[in-house]
Amino acid sequence: MKLFKKAVSTAAMLVLAGASFSSFAQKGETVKIAWIDPLSGLMAAVGTNGLKTFQYMAEEFNKKNVAGVKFEVIGLDNKLSPQESTNALRQAIDQGARYVVQGNGSGVAFALVDAIDKHNARNPGKEVLFVNYAAVDPDLTNSKCSFWHFRLDADTSMKMEAMTTFMKDQPDIKKVYILGQNYSHGVQVAKFAKANLARKRPDIEIVGEDLHPLAQVRDFAPYIAKIKASGADTVITGNWGSDLSLLIKAAADSGLNNVKFYTYYGSVEGTPTALGAGAAGRVYQVAYGHSNMGGEIQKLDLNFRKKFDDDLSVYDVYTAFTLLSEGMAKAKSTDPAKVAPAMEGLRFKSFNGDVEMRKTDHQLQQGMYITRWEKAGGKYPVDEEKTGYTFVPVKYFESYVASTPTSCDMKRP
Length: 413
Hints:
The chain is α/β, with parallel strands linked by helices. The protein has two domains: about 30-155 and about 295-305 and about 310-365, 3-Layer(aba) Sandwich (Rossmann fold), CATH 3.40.50.2300; about 155-295 and about 370-400, Rossmann fold. About 40% of the residues lie in helices and about 20% in strands. The protein contains 13 helices and 15 strands. It has helices at about 1-25, 45-60, 80-95, 105-120, 155-165, 185-200, 220-230, 240-255, 270-275, 295-310, 315-330, 335-345, 400; strands at about 30-35, 70-75, 100, 130, 150, 175-180, 205-210, 235, 260-265, 285, 345-350, 355, 365, 370-375, 390-395. A seven-stranded mixed beta sheet has the order 7-6-8-9-10-14-15, sandwiched between helices. The chain has a five-stranded parallel beta sheet with strand order 2-1-3-4-5, sandwiched between helices. The protein is globular and about 60 Å long.
């Protein structure tokens, strides 16, 4: 009898020890994250900055994250191609990565969501989770929503809600030209711009609309000529990377100095340099932050600049590692199948305040800033790309202003 009691006691201790080990199995574990974005072509500068930012933030979070894990970021060049991205995904899985991050191009994001959904359905126990930091087509969290996909940036419709809420109170806006890249994001920017302005400022006239090939145009002079001829006082564009830098350069070269530009990605790599002093007061941006946020993100940005001689332009990488760290700590696991449900509905403090990962569609809810390109100084001393200029906040909207409803019918495993 004593022997039986001893055996039971020993078994119980082993179970408890096993449970304890299981609960904290992620402590000290290395979590591989596959970064899949462009490192070649016209968008290479944007991608290179993004990869450096992810690797830099991984090092910072390895010092202190609440899950106690070590993040390792593997960079894979997708050449901005959906097909190359699915090839890169297979390479990442072969290298042991079960987390994927991507942001440049919604077409790529759709391809990754589809490939990850199929992989996870075929490989139970080896699931992969996708954190999207910048691909903003609304369908990714609506008709094409996936349990395995989480978006950190505000989607196209959310940003347009904030942008047009600001624009409706600007009496000098009377004629708008819409210019965008010819893929899902550019199409959605045009769609929501027209719908929102019709609802909020029906007196504004849409005097032109154009879509151009993504990352292929080297000379935007013909588009600038059309904007000039239209009589537009304002341009709305969702362009990013070289497509925005070259557009701004063409506008400056043609002397188009009396038109305002409302942008989504004015601070993305290369564009601040293109803006320069000539664009001061005329270029606006809608975003979840700006270069003078203060606090920890400011220190990280300044340290990044010293280390790489480059700006830290993708702030929500900080949010990505915070979300993953909090999710893993809550799940007491690094298994994506356990971390995904732990991240649903998670509320936490990021660099821009309190945010929430909405459970219904995995779309982050956060406040939005309208900023204007102006000379740096005073309350906003940190400039962008050594230009002496920066995006200065002119309006802040709480998260509920930009929040849009979702049609997502989430299929959970």
